[in-house]
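Researcher: Re-running this chain for the archive, since the previous output was lost when a drive failed. Same request as before.
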Amino acid sequence: MPVELGLTCDRRWQADLVTVVDAAGEAGFSSVGIGAELVDERAATEISSRAQRCHELMALVVSNNGPATIASAELLASKAASVGAPWVLTVFAAAMNNDTMTTIRRCAEMFADAGARMAVEFSPLGSVTSIRDGLDIVTALGGDLAGLLIDTWHFFSGDSTWEDLEHVPLELLAYVQFADALPAISDDGMDETMNRRTMPGDGIFDLERFASALLDRGWAGLVTVEVLNRDLAVMPVSDFARMAYESTSRYWL
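Model: Regenerated C-alpha cells:
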C-alpha cells in the first residue's frame, strides 16, 4: 500500500470547509486535517461527497486543569464521531504525573468510544518533548487507544535523534505531519513553528533522510502537510494546496 498524502489546515485560513476540501482534492490529497470549529451538522456529508476523508481533528490540549481538559475531549470526541475522524491530535502543556496520566487515559477512552484514537504529538515547546517521551505515553495507553504523531518541525527542532526515528515501532506510528522550516531568526520557538515553516524542500531540514528513515523500513502510512506560515496563510487555499502536494509528493510517492 502506498503512502497516503493529506493536508492539514492552518486554522488562520479564511476559508470554509467546502473550500478546504475542494482545494485538497483538486491538488491530489485524499484527506484533510481540520479544526473542530469547522465541524457542523453538514461536515460529514460535505467531506464524503467529495471523495475525501477527515484524518485528524484538532486539537486537545492537555492542561493542568483536568476537568477542563476532559470537557474539551468530550466535545472533540463527539465531533470526531460525526466526521469519522480516526485521530484526535493531542498536545501536552501539563507536567507528566499520575494525575495527568489519569486525565489522558480518560480522554483517550472517550475518543475510543467515538471510534477515534489519540494522536500523541511531542513538541520541544511542551512537556512531551521527544519521540521517546511520546512513545512512553502511547505505550502506557496501548496501541488501541493511541499512536505517535511525528511532526517534522518538532523532530528537527527538539531533542529527538535519528536513532529514535530509525527505531520507532512502526505499528505505534499514527501519522507524520510534514513541513520544512526557514532558518531561525530568534529564540522564540512558538513564532518559528507557527509563522516560519515553509514548503518541503524550501528550507533547512533534511527531509530526504527523514522520509527514507521510514520508507526504507517499509512504512506506508499517512503523511499530512502542515505548513504554518503567516505569509503563506493569506494565499488562496487552492494555490497553497497545489504547492503543498507538489513539494511533498516527491519525497514519499
